[in-house]
């Protein structure tokens, strides 16, 4: 190592030695060569251009996409005693002139510039006059429309650099680049000959986990999880500004020190919240994806994705903000396929190619979430890195799914790729195997292939699982030139000649988990509730129901018992906070349950509910109060729905929440208008003897009576209100 480099590394940045590829990259830049760096978040990317900028004569221009975060980088450099500035639209004219003066006087070592500022003619002229050392393009994946954060203005950077100085060396850096994105960046910057430095994407200290996203349950899980991480820093990512505000408010009313961050907030608020997080005044930042790029906070202990990201690159980069100090980092994503569909709809107005690209990225994201293969292996494969063994440190490794013999399936999948000449995507290959007739099949005569329809007895999900696992295990591969197209590898060719036994894993069926009435929550320790207490509570419910002459579900429903067995309420107030309980039910049925829980808690030395009670921020309660008031005035339910801008189904949902929380609602006036006494008697008898109040079960049982779902739901409200509350 050159002595001058070594001295600067120690004296300015405080490091005794380089990590990974850093030294080779610094030497390459100091030698004036074009350099392309692919280095995961937390591996020390910034140092790769900051150190050579300090050593070389002149000013290094750093092009960075996020204006709000340039300040963070510049503040850090100034703290090291390095003269650095940023040039972007937040500066007024006199501030801009001061920055330009400092640069032209040769006093500035690093100048951060937004790509939008770089395109302004006066800035191009100013940079032509300056003595520049090199140009660093941070977040270079923004160049590629295949990247997770494509920005059209990034594609103009090369032509602008050519205007500023033809011989200027370029260093492009990114924390995420699939082989396709890498190729796109190099072509656009005309850097095909650049020296490439690629670090491993394996962040061994991060634990990856995906759980089903279930309405209301997810928020409870997040609160419980964060309360168990007391004093630790975390980030929660949401896709919309509205959701960021909602989740931040929810955490705050539950006593969690959280703040929101998104582009719609006033700049001063954004900067304050960001600084509070960096300075440990705030534990949790709830943010859109803009937060975290370029922020060097090493001790983020967990990253939660409330919403599924738009691509695996985005997911990888955002999770990479956890555990940058090499210590523990938990990456928890809540997933439901509905979110993928919603994101796909957002792309409908994009140009066709961009829309198709975005669709492929979303499919990759869904495949990662639903796959039961080692998460780390899947992620590394996506970035063109192969891992032989499972990591043992993700939810899929800790809780393996059912395996099946994949030999025959794999032969069929590889054969299908071969017989369609390595030219089609996963959907088409699966359609060939399952014998799906469409225009493509006919035009390519694939419906005439010998294996057309050979796998029709197995569903689409299974065949996609087989093909994805074939890719992860290097039997098949993606064609870089034609994105989405799948080809056979040499290993796949060899397997066709001599097939051998291979074990495959069944995918998670998150959709099914969400359809179930009481989905089992995936967590590191199996069921999220105390099963012993749950069984005791069920027995108590049965006893109380028998003494009152009522069906057990009228007392408390299973989800309420599960929550009791999760948070251990021991006071009337705590029990009233349980979903589906409320003070009405506490007064009517609560005493024996509270006694049972208190005894259980004492005998087993358990932490109780006050740590994990979920409060709401009150916005929904206004709707509920309005409904109660209008029902008291005997206003027709259709009219109430219209007044509150709700559909009838949404109104019934609100009413159900009210009555299941123990509040009595008298809607007899409405029921009398929509059904006669005979039909009422039929429904009363049904609910009195039913084992569950599930609507689908009621519809099946009463099929011959031709009841509409709405009728049954309305009568259920009356029944629960009269007998349970």
Plain-language structure description:
The chain has five domains: 3-198, P-loop containing nucleotide triphosphate hydrolases (Rossmann fold), CATH 3.40.50; 206-398, Rossmann fold (3-Layer(aba) Sandwich); 403-506, Orthogonal Bundle (Arc Repressor Mutant, subunit A); 531-611, HRDC domain (DNA polymerase, domain 1, Orthogonal Bundle); 619-724, Arc Repressor Mutant, subunit A, CATH 1.10.10. It starts with a helix and ends with a helix. The protein is of the alpha/beta class and 725 residues long. It contains 35 helices and 17 strands. Helix content is 50%, strand content 11%. The strands form four sheets. A seven-stranded parallel beta sheet has the order 3-4-2-5-6-1-7, with helices on both faces. A six-stranded parallel beta sheet has the order 8-13-12-9-11-10, sandwiched between helices. The model is unreliable at 514-527 (pLDDT under 50). Residues 527-607 form the HRDC domain. It is an enzyme of class 5 (isomerase). Its cofactor is Zn(2+); Mg(2+). InterPro entries: DEAD/DEAH_box_helicase_dom, DNA_helicase_ATP-dep_RecQ, DNA_helicase_ATP-dep_RecQ_bac, Helicase_ATP-bd, Helicase_C-like, HRDC-like_sf, HRDC_dom, HRDC_dom_sf. Keywords: ATP-binding, DNA damage, DNA recombination, DNA repair, DNA-binding, Helicase, Hydrolase, Isomerase, Metal-binding, Nucleotide-binding, Zinc.
